[in-house]
What does this fold into?
Amino acid sequence: MSEKNALKLEMFANRLKKVLRIRSKWARKQGISCYRLYDLDMPEFPFCIDIYEDKVYVAEYQRQHQLDEKEYREWFTDSVTVLREILEVPPTNIFIKHRKVIEERVDQYHKLAEVSREFVVEEGGLQFIINLSDYLDTGLFLDHRITRSIVAAESRDKNVLNLFAYTGSFSVYAAKGGAQLVTTIDLSNTYVQWAKRNFELNGLNAGNYEFEVMDVMAWLQKPQPHRYDIIVCDPPTFSNSKKMDGIFDVQRDHVFMIQLCSALLKEGGKIYFSTNFTKFKLREEELASLLIKDITKLTTPFDFEGKKRAAVAQEAIELLKKEVDTLLIIPNQK
It folds into this structure.
């Protein structure tokens, strides 16, 4: 190992030690066992690292570098060794995914991802199934932790619709919060079945709730028998699934989608709309009939504040001129 690389690894180790000390302390104080530890903090180490109780999930992001095959393998192995030593976890508890990285570069760490392994973790007094090996995402988006708790607190005796529901964590929160109706919609049968398992895991009879495997945009344009007090809408940035008619693009389609959601609201109802598309620009002038409030800052957990700070630090900045994560949308009462 060169002296230059050794210095970089030492800097990486020091960064991990610092964030681990700070964030583990915050997590303990809040009774949180699953949290984001590191999020592309250093360009030389393009990782996203999440703690899931005693397991560690590492996503490596593509980057431009001048490393040849041998140098890459050495860098990657040394990086994971540093991570393992700092966190004091055995190799079998580290799960690594390579996002947009050439797969043939992956060595023995890729083997961890070839064995299907599910675990149950706790959040907010509820339990959720996560899978750290089979899918690019784990089954539980940690950055929506606060928003889920808000939905739960507002759900008693309410009708709740969860669109692009993924594994149904918002639905579970709503049901446990006392919602009288929870409707869960996702295009993937795998995820809808996963959502049902999360219901059963939390003592909820999935048969008492509504689940549908369908393209959300197509579902929204069908006549629906219910109106909803709360709609959670967390669409992907882009989707061209063969199960869909056409292509979904959140920037292009968000106005029409929000209008369709609004038509399903009861009087006094609200929409929680979220996107992780960092270049998203809300076309607010086309949604004049709705009151829109950016609640990104309110709903950003402690372990994601660093990533979101640039987008939400100046409250005076106009909504259309900054990145948006979560919006609260309600019909204009005027």
Q: What stands out?
A: The CA atoms of residues 9 and 292 lie 45 Å apart. The first helix runs from residue 3 to 30.
